[in-house]
Amino acid sequence: MNTRREDQKRTAIARQIDENLKRVYEQDTTEKIPDKFLELLDKLREQE
Question: Locate the Anti-sigma factor NepR domain: which residues (predicted)?
Fold first, then answer.
């Protein structure tokens, strides 16, 4: 049987996971795309 305390603990863990995933995503979106990847994308577009 789930107690209120167990439910609160699960909710806190889920909140921490959400916050950490958001942090990782935000870091990824602020990083610059390396030039070699941009060059590769240009080459692929030229082939189309």
Answer: 15-48
Tokens for 23, please give them.
Answer: 């942090």
Write phi, then psi, for 45 (nearest 5 degrees).
-65, -35
Give CA angle at 24 (19, 27), nearest 5°.
125
| pTM of the complete model beyond 0.90 | no
Q: Which two tokens stand for residue 4?
A: 């209120």
- Across 1-13, b (16+ Cβ under 10 Å) vs e yields eeeeeeeeeeeee
Specify burial of residue 36 (Cβ count, 10 A radius: 0-12, 13-18, 19+).
exposed
